[in-house]
Each structure stands twice: as structure tokens, then as C-alpha cells.
Amino acid sequence: MSDLYELQLAWELGDTLPGEVLDDLRWHMGLQGEEPLDGDLEREPLLAARGPALRIGGVLFSELARGRRGWSVTVRQEMHAEELPELHDLLSRLAAHAPSIDPVGQLRHYEGHVPELLMVQAGAVTRQPLHLIESEAVPFSRDLF
What we know:
Layout: E1 4-14, H1 19-28, E2 51-52, E3 59-67, E4 70-80, H2 84-95, E5 105-109, E6 116-121, E7 124-129
Antiparallel strand pairs: 1-4, 1-5, 2-3, 3-4, 5-6, 6-7
């Protein structure tokens, strides 16, 4: 069993992020220099991988864009369990300044089928477990559109 997770974010961050928080996010996304802003050369960017995913399938990417409602970030990355505390710190710094819009993403163990929702509550990011309900499968239908 591996300690690998799939992280997906789709987060409207607004326009009130302080410059140092935005710069740290850019560094983690691989958009701003190679050296960490805090000078800790042991740190690695969390959200900078691009291209085919090794274990979770699909593609790894990170995008940051400024639009009418401020900054928006969309991410899909593979995360190792030892990176989760640093990820929590980064997301908490973002949540402290971002509008409270739930949910902002999901985190799924790569061998699991049901993700945990990442929610902003009282200026912090929390993980909300989801539960698979055993029932008959519902076929995909064109009537849904």
C-alpha cells in the first residue's frame, strides 16, 4: 500500500491575498523562481508537477489566473503523505484570506474510490469525509443534459 494521494483544487481565491501569500503559492506552483522564498533549500514545490501522472492516471497540472473575481487556482497533483502537513499549511494560509466558498477541492488516496472534500470553514481548510452508499449503479443518461 502506497502513501500517495490525488489532490484536486478548483478555488476562487478572490483579490485580497497578500503579496507574500500569492508569491508563496506561485513558488509552490513552479511559477516563481527555483529557490524557496524562505531560503529553506530543503523544501520542494508541492504543486509544480506537469505531464502524465505516475500512479493516479491522467495529467498533473497547476494553473493560476486573475479574472473578474480575483485570483483563481486549478490544480491536479500527486501528493505523498509526508507532504500533507506542508500542503495543509499552504492551503490554510490561502483560506485565511480567501472568500469562504465550499468546497474548494478534494483529496483521495490513490487506491481509494471516494475522495474527501476540502472545505473552507472559519478561515481554515478542513477535510470532510464522504461515504460510498451501497446501491444499484445509475446508468449515465443523455436525459441528464
